[in-house]
Specification:
Layout lengths: L8 H13 L6 H13 L3 E8 L4 E5 L5 E2 L5 H14 L7 E4 L10 H5 L5 E4 H11 L2 H11 L2 H10 L5 E2 L4 H6 L8 E2 L1 H12 L6 H12 L18 E7 L8 E11 L5 E11 L3 H19 L3 H12 L9 H19 L5 H20 L6 H11 L4 H13 L3 H11 L11 H14 L5 H11 L3
Antiparallel strand pairs: 1-2, 1-10, 3-7, 4-5, 6-7, 8-9, 9-10
Helix pairs in contact: 2-11, 3-6, 3-7, 5-6, 12-13, 13-14, 14-15, 14-16, 15-16, 16-17
């Protein structure tokens, strides 16, 4: 079960209103900071920022066409998954990759299959392109999709017109000037991020896959990610050009969606064009802009601490449904994650374990099982040996149809001591079944395990 106190919906709304009132609604402070940072760069900075829940938007030098470099792997991924949704391509179909296609560049495919002449699934190629910025994977998928023009037209067809793709990675490496012809405005990237966030152009399955891949991308960690509190969720795609003999770097970019501690989402695209600064300074400039944006839209550590302390004092009594309570815990674990990097003490760890387990329980109760295993793992990560997530794991397996695995865990734990309120796990298991029955979750497997636990053998 759960066992954790929380705050009321009314109090949360009041507190969020308080925090919002402290913000500069015209973002004058942020604009001034961006202008200050732009003056420190030796190139041209362009950016677009949008709070996706209310479309609060800020732009800077947004009309310029900035070379995308590997940022274009984001729209390529969108175009590929649109083809998957249409049935034109399958993620499980195999693509024959020749040795000639595995150029010596940034490429996990080339490292895994140096001799080529191997069939690789579209899913693996897509994963390497998005998460590892694999240039060969990119060119293979562009060929599969019919080339740059078809991909550009496909993205224009969903209403994102402020970008153009004119060549693949190999083409750009062969022709220095071509990178300027594969361009985007910052706002076009933010527009595309918004469409993915709202699940407006892909099926849920494809949309979820793309978000998982972008959340798993850790290329260019010194850019947007470096400007955020450690552990802040970031779904992103970066892009980086080479540097010529004169020290000119045409493109240092990063675009993505930041999840704020209040569970809102900030889409951000930052492009630095034609800079003569070294790589570390270019990355730091983007990180500083990301930090300024984060601080603007979620104002500060002191407010976070006050916010979290307040919500921990409240209860769930005013929440009307189990779904509301689940959403409450989703918000709370996001706050926890941000706060833990400020105060990584044993109390915070214990609270996080409790909150993740509560989120897992209410996800089970509301039959939203997709991420329950992850929530239980997080709970045990912060408090190894915690009995409640261990009691919830066999229940999850049971509800997912994995009866043999669930039965084995029930038998393993049933006679082991539990806590002060339940002498053994068996008492907790049976109580959980009773709670599920109250909300209409009853099936044959639960009845079988109930009989098994209730027998004297």
């Amino acid at each position: 079960m759960h066992h954790c106190k929380s705050y009321s919906a009314a109090f949360l709304l009041l507190l969020l209103s308080f925090i919002a009132s402290a913000q500069d609604l015209n973002h004058n402070r942020l604009r001034a900071e961006i202008k200050r940072l732009a003056k420190l760069s030796s190139g041209k900075i362009g950016l677009s920022i949008k709070l996706l829940e209310n479309n609060d938007t800020l732009g800077f030098n947004d009309a310029q066409h900035y070379p995308m470099q590997s940022v274009f792997k984001f729209p390529i991924a969108v175009s590929l998954l649109r083809a998957v949704d249409r049935g034109d391509i399958s993620l499980d179909q195999k693509v024959l990759i020749t040795k000639a296609e595995l150029l010596k560049t940034v490429s996990a495919l080339q490292e895994k299959y140096p001799e080529g002449n191997v069939k690789v699934s579209v899913r693996e190629i897509l994963t390497d392109m998005v998460t590892l910025s694999d240039n060969n994977a990119c060119d293979i998928l562009m060929k599969l999709l019919g080339g740059p023009k078809k991909i550009t037209n496909d993205i224009h067809a969903i209403g994102v017109s402020g970008l153009q793709i004119k060549g693949n990675e190999a083409d750009m490496q062969a022709d220095w000037g071509l990178q300027y012809k594969s361009w985007s405005t910052p706002s076009a990237q933010v527009q595309l991020l918004g469409l993915i966030f709202r699940q407006a152009v892909l099926s849920k399955k494809s949309n979820d896959l793309l978000m998982r891949l972008m959340l798993s991308t850790y290329v260019a960690p010194g850019r947007i990610r470096a400007g955020l509190p450690k552990g802040t969720p970031l779904a992103h795609r970066s892009g980086t050009s080479g540097t010529n003999e004169q020290g000119l770097s045409p493109a240092t970019n990063d675009v993505g969606i930041i999840t704020l501690p209040d569970s809102k989402h900030l889409a951000i695209a930052i492009f630095l064009m034609d800079s003569y600064s070294d790589a570390k300074k270019r990355d730091l400039l983007i990180a500083d802009i990301a930090k300024a944006a984060y601080d603007e839209f979620f104002p500060g550590v002191a407010q976070l601490k006050k916010y979290r302390e307040s919500v921990l004092k409240q209860g769930t009594s005013n929440l009307k449904s189990d779904s509301d309570i689940r959403e409450h815990y989703r918000t709370l674990v996001t706050l926890d994650s941000a706060f833990y990097h400020i105060a990584p003490d044993s109390l915070t760890r214990s609270q996080m374990a409790n909150h993740y387990n509560s989120l897992a329980w209410y996800s089970i109760v509301t039959q939203q099982l997709d991420n329950v295993k992850n929530y239980l793992d997080q709970s045990l990560k912060f408090e190894p040996g915690y009995v409640y997530p261990q009691a919830n794991l066999p229940l999850l397996l049971l509800l997912q149809g994995h009866y043999p695995e669930a039965e084995a865990l029930y038998l393993k734990y049933k006679d082991q001591p539990f806590d002060k309120t339940h002498a053994t796990y068996k008492e907790e298991f049976l109580e959980d079944f009773g709670e599920l029955k109250k909300v209409g979750i009853v099936n044959e497997d639960i009845e079988k395990i109930t009989r098994l636990l209730s027998s004297k053998n």
